[in-house]
Specification:
- By secondary structure, the protein is α+β, with helices and mostly antiparallel strands.
- Helix content is about 45%, strand content about 20%.
- Strands 1-2-3-4 form a 4-stranded antiparallel β-sheet, covered by helices on one side.
- One of its GO terms (molecular function) is double-stranded telomeric DNA binding.
- Pfam families: AAA_23 (PF13476).
């Protein structure tokens, strides 16, 4: 008879890491609209319909935070995973997203937005770029070693983080305006 020994301390730590990572993935999804890496079609992010033995599974991720002005806001994103054929991968569809905001004067506004508008509104409300949200604040555990990747990849991430391409474009625009003004004066 074989004896199985389970180290509960290791098991509990492993479960704690899984739960912590899931919470981080939900925070990232509600803030950026990005699915976790490795979720392929995204069905496994909410609940795979094949496991639930259902043709569709609906989910809602809600985040309550304060924006850069200190106003409380609630962000909600609704999803639906569908499984039409048992042998094929399911599909994930974003149903809707909304932001409910309470201002310091007591007003409450609620806006339903498309995904791209909601993503942009979150970037504005949080006061950081999407690159900072994805690569620093909500960096996935499997992707946390990105500074050790090949130089081209690291350079691209730093360019995104510091918005260097936007900076170069702004400098070019300033130079062009300066040249146009100088040529008009002569």
């Amino acid at each position: 008879m074989a004896q199985i020994i389970i180290n509960y301390k290791v098991f509990i730590n492993h479960i704690r890491n899984i739960v912590f990572q899931t919470v981080i993935e939900c925070l990232k999804y509600s803030a950026t609209g990005e699915l976790p890496p490795g979720s392929k079609t995204g069905c496994s992010f909410i609940h795979d319909p094949r496991i639930a033995q259902e043709s569709e599974v609906k989910a809602k991720v809600t985040l309550q935070i304060r924006d850069v002005k200190g106003c409380p806001m609630v962000v909600s994103r609704a999803l639906m995973a569908t499984q039409r054929d048992k042998t094929k991968q399911g599909t994930l569809k974003t149903l809707d997203g909304s932001i409910k905001r309470q201002y310091s004067d007591g007003r409450v506004t609620s806006v339903s937005l498309r995904c791209t508008d909601l993503d942009q509104e979150m970037v504005t409300s949080l006061g950081v770029s999407k690159a900072v949200l994805e690569n620093v604040i909500f960096c996935h555990q499997e992707d946390s070693n990105w500074p050790l990747q090949e130089a081209k990849s690291v350079k691209q991430r730093f360019d995104d983080l510091f918005a260097s391409s936007r900076y170069v474009k702004a400098l070019d625009a300033i130079r062009k305006c300066k040249q146009d003004n100088v040529s008009c004066e002569t």
